[in-house]
Amino acid sequence: MGESSGRRGGRRAARNPLSRAEVIDAALRYVDLHGLDALTMRALATEMGVYPTALYWHTGTKAQLVAAVSARVLEDIVLPADHGMAWDEWLTEVARLCRQAMHRHPNLAPILGSQLVVSTTAVPFAERVVGVLERAGFSGRDLVEVYNAVVGFVLGWVTLELSSVPADVEEGWQKEYAAQLRTVNPNTFPALTRNLSLLENNAFLVRWDSGRDRPMDGSFETALELLLLGLHAKLTAQ
Amino acid sequence: MGESSGRRGGRRAARNPLSRAEVIDAALRYVDLHGLDALTMRALATEMGVYPTALYWHTGTKAQLVAAVSARVLEDIVLPADHGMAWDEWLTEVARLCRQAMHRHPNLAPILGSQLVVSTTAVPFAERVVGVLERAGFSGRDLVEVYNAVVGFVLGWVTLELSSVPADVEEGWQKEYAAQLRTVNPNTFPALTRNLSLLENNAFLVRWDSGRDRPMDGSFETALELLLLGLHAKLTAQ
DNA sequence: ACCTGAACACCGTTCAAGT
DNA sequence: ACCTGAACACCGTTCAAGT
C-alpha cells in the first residue's frame, strides 16, 4: 500500500472523484474519532485531501452534512423479523438495538437527541414499530400516543445517558463535585445520604462520568421493564 | 426612561459593574430570543454594551457560560411539598413541572439533554425524587435504577419532543416530506398507511414541526401513565 | 476588581475560475 | 460534473494595558 495508491494522509489521486456517501462516512468517522466540536469543514477537507469548498458540492452546508450523518446512524439499525415473536419481546429487542447503535457513536448523541430527523430513512422503522403495537392491541389515538411514548423513551433516555461534559469545563471539577456530595448535610439530604454509595456517579444529576464511559445498563433494563409493564397494564385495563 | 439611565441598546453607565448572575440571565434571554446558534460572546457583549472579553471575567469560557445557563433553567423548578400527597401523584406533578420548565426555554433543550449537569443545583431535586421513591417502597439497587428510569424518561423524552431542524436545512423540505409520506407504498407500509392521518406530523420520526410549535401533550401524558403503571406493577410484583 | 483594546488563529460560506 | 483558490465576514480566546 504505497502512498500513491490511497486517499488517506491528506493525499488523493487526481482521478476518482468524491461521492456524497464517501463524505458522510468520512464525517462520521471523524466525529467518532475526534468529537463533534472538532468536526470542521476545513478539518474534514484536509482529512480527505481536498479543498473545504469541495465538500459543499456533495453534501451542502455543514448543518446539512451533520443531518445526513445522523440519519446514517439510524440507517444501520437492522430490525429483527417480528413473525413468530411476541410483540413485547420484539420491542425489547428493538430498544436494545437502538441503544447499541447510539452507543456506537456516542459523540453524535447530542444531534440524534436534539435534531428533528429530516430523512425518510426512518420511515421503515416507524412502520415496523407501529405495526407491532397494532398487533399488541393498540389502535387509533392510543396507538399514536403509545408509539410516541415508546420511541421517545428509548431515544430520549439514551441521549441523556450519553450526555457528557464539554471538553472545556471538565478540568478538575469531577473530584470537587464528588467531594461536595460526600460532605452534604445528612439532615437536609437524608435520602441522598442513605444511598450515596449506590447513587454517586451512577445516577442522573449525581454523576460526573458520561454513559459513554460508564454505561447504565441496569437502569436501562429497568426502564424498559417499567415501560413494558406499563404497556401490559394499559392493555388489560381496556 | 431616557437613554442615559438604562443599560439596554448597547449602552452602559460607566459605573455599576456587571455580575455573574447578570451575564447568565442576559445569555438565557438572548438564547430564548435568538436561538442557541446565535449566542456568541461578541453578540452577547454588544447586547450588554460591553467588550466581549469582559464576559470572560465573570463567566469564563463560552462552554462554561452555557453550562451555567442550563443549570439556571433547572434551578427555577420549584418542587411541590410531598407530605399529604401520594407518591405517584407527586411524581406526576414533578414530571409535568420539568416539562414546563424545558418548554419555557426550548432553544436550550439540546444542552439540557446532551450535556452532563455540572452544578450542584440539581442535588436538592435528586434528594426529593429519591426520597419519594423510597417512600413508594423501592430500596437499594432497585431504587437507583428506578430513579434513573424516571428521571431519564422525563428529561430525555422532552428533549426529543423539543428537537427541531437546524435553521439551515428547513427550506422547503417539510412540504416535500409530507408529500413523500402520502405517496408511500401501501403494501410495504401498511400500518403507516392505515394510521397516516393520525401519525403525520404527530409522531416521532414522522413529523416535521418541533414540539416547541406543536406540543405533544397527549403523548407525554400517555408516557407518564405507562411509567406509573409500570412502577405500580413492579411494586406489587415484589 | 473589573474592563478595554488589540491581536491571533481559527471558522463557514460565496463565488468566480479552472478542467 | 467536480474541484480549486481567493476572499469575506465572522468566530473564541489570550494577553497586556488601563482604571
UniProtKB/TrEMBL annotation, chains A, B:
DNA-binding region: 40-59
InterPro entries per UniProt: Homeodomain-like_sf, HTH-type_TetR-like_transc_reg, HTH_TetR, Repressor_TetR_C, Tet_transcr_reg_TetR, Tet_transcr_reg_TetR-rel_C_sf
Domain of life: Bacteria
Keywords: DNA-binding, Repressor, Transcription, Transcription regulation
Domain (HTH tetR-type): residue spans on this chain: 17-77
Pfam families associated with the record: TetR_C_1 (PF02909), TetR_N (PF00440)
Gene3D superfamilies: Homeodomain-like, Tetracycline Repressor, domain 2
Keyword Transcription carried by entry: yes
UniProt entry tagged with the keyword Cytoplasm: no
Protein name according to UniProt: TetR/AcrR family transcriptional regulator C-terminal domain-containing protein
Species: Streptomyces xiangluensis
